[in-house]
Amino acid sequence: MKEKLDQIRQEALKQIADSDALDKLNDVRVAFLGKKGKLTAVLKGMKDVPAEERPLVGQLVNETRAAIEGFLEESRAKMEKLAREEQLKREVIDVTLPAKKNSVGHRHPNTIALEEVERIFVGMGYEVVEGPEVEYDYYNFEALNIPANHPAKDEQDTFYVTSDIVLRTQTSPVQVRTMEKGKLPIRVIAPGRVFRSDEVDATHSPSFHQIEGLVIDKNITFADLKGTLAEFARQLFGPETKVKFRPHHFPFTEPSAEVDVTCFKCGGKGCRFCKGSGWIEILGCGMVHPNVLKMSGIDPEEYSGFAFGVGLERIALLKYEIDDMRLLYENDDRFLKQF
């Protein structure tokens, strides 16, 4: 038995010494120490060894196993060290090369302008509300005092999904839904995306964004509207900004007005930016029409209010002196990284 174990040991050590790869070492381990290995077969034959010789044979088997395992581990460590050295030689790193720069995103000009407008009105006590972009014709037109034969309802101006459903042309439907809830008083702004059948050019797009505001309370007058928008203009464009109201017509407000602000480029003196007039148009506004209040379940004899609407892209174009609206949608990093 001792001679047989010596033979197994010598054979195993020779095969380990001849191995030149880690997978071959594993093959040797399986051949001698595996479940069907040569040394395991000797252990299985212990039942045929006389009882008085079993301790000695068992000791010889353990010594043989230890010798084989020790040489296997030593050979494996040497091979791994050599492999690591070869890898380091192949994978040379030039530490003098510049590192890769992480491309970190930031807010879009529209988002920056929206957050600024929201900050101003939230500071005045307004709440920011939102509503669906696919809207019922009733909320987009009828409830805003726009009758069935109004030109704004022409299919050339509005995207109709069905005869009763449209892509909203303004965020005013959000105001109607807020009024219908009956929780008075109301002070809200409603930002969101809107859709109109416009050709794409430097100042128009079939999809753009609006911010509309609504105040409903007792004893609200046009003076409250003027004071609110004057403060808004001063905070957005600078403390020296003045506002001018020009009479206009909107179906859902009466009286209505267009609002101009003094050119923040020239201070109202007249320049290329304001086309020499000293004024820049920014939004439309007016007192909420009594019919709109009635249709929303509010008594116009007890409550009054005002509403206003401004294009978010227009604010961004003016604030950052951008002369083409299309730049906001082209996702050109060279343009967006300026903000």
Automatic annotation (TrEMBL):
> Which residues are involved in binding Mg(2+)?
E254
How this chain assembles, per its entry, is:
Tetramer of two alpha and two beta subunits.
Q: What is its main location?
A: cytoplasm
* Annotated transmembrane regions: none
Q: Which family does it belong to?
A: Belongs to the class-II aminoacyl-tRNA synthetase family. Phe-tRNA synthetase alpha subunit type 1 subfamily.
- GO MF terms on file? ATP binding; catalytic activity, acting on a protein; magnesium ion binding; phenylalanine-tRNA ligase activity; transferase activity; tRNA binding
The superkingdom listed in its UniProt entry is: Bacteria
Q: Which PANTHER family match?
A: PHENYLALANINE--TRNA LIGASE, MITOCHONDRIAL, PHENYLALANYL-TRNA SYNTHETASE
How does the cofactor bind to this protein, according to its record?
Binds 2 magnesium ions per tetramer.
Q: Mind listing the GO biological process terms from this record? A: phenylalanyl-tRNA aminoacylation
Task: Look up the record and name the cofactor or cofactors this protein needs.
Answer: Mg(2+)
- Listed GO CC annotations: cytoplasm
This chain's protein is named Phenylalanine--tRNA ligase alpha subunit
Pfam families, sorted: Phe_tRNA-synt_N, tRNA-synt_2d
**Catalytic reactions on record:** tRNA(Phe) + L-phenylalanine + ATP = L-phenylalanyl-tRNA(Phe) + AMP + diphosphate + H(+)
Q: Tell me its EC number(s), please.
A: 6.1.1.20
- Which residue range or ranges hold the Aminoacyl-transfer RNA synthetases class-II family profile domain? 117-330
Q: Which InterPro entries match?
A: aa-tRNA-synth_II, aa-tRNA-synth_II/BPL/LPL, Phe-tRNA-synth_IIc_asu, Phe-tRNA_ligase_II_N, Phe_tRNA_ligase_alpha1_bac, Phenylalanyl-tRNA_Synthase, tRNA-bd_arm
Keyword Cytoplasm present in the record's keywords: the answer is yes
Question: What HAMAP family does the record point to?
Answer: Phe_tRNA_synth_alpha1
Keywords per UniProt: Aminoacyl-tRNA synthetase, ATP-binding, Cytoplasm, Ligase, Magnesium, Metal-binding, Nucleotide-binding, Protein biosynthesis
Gene3D superfamilies, per this entry?
Bira Bifunctional Protein, Domain 2
Looking up CDD domains in the UniProt record yields:
PheRS_alpha_core (cd00496)
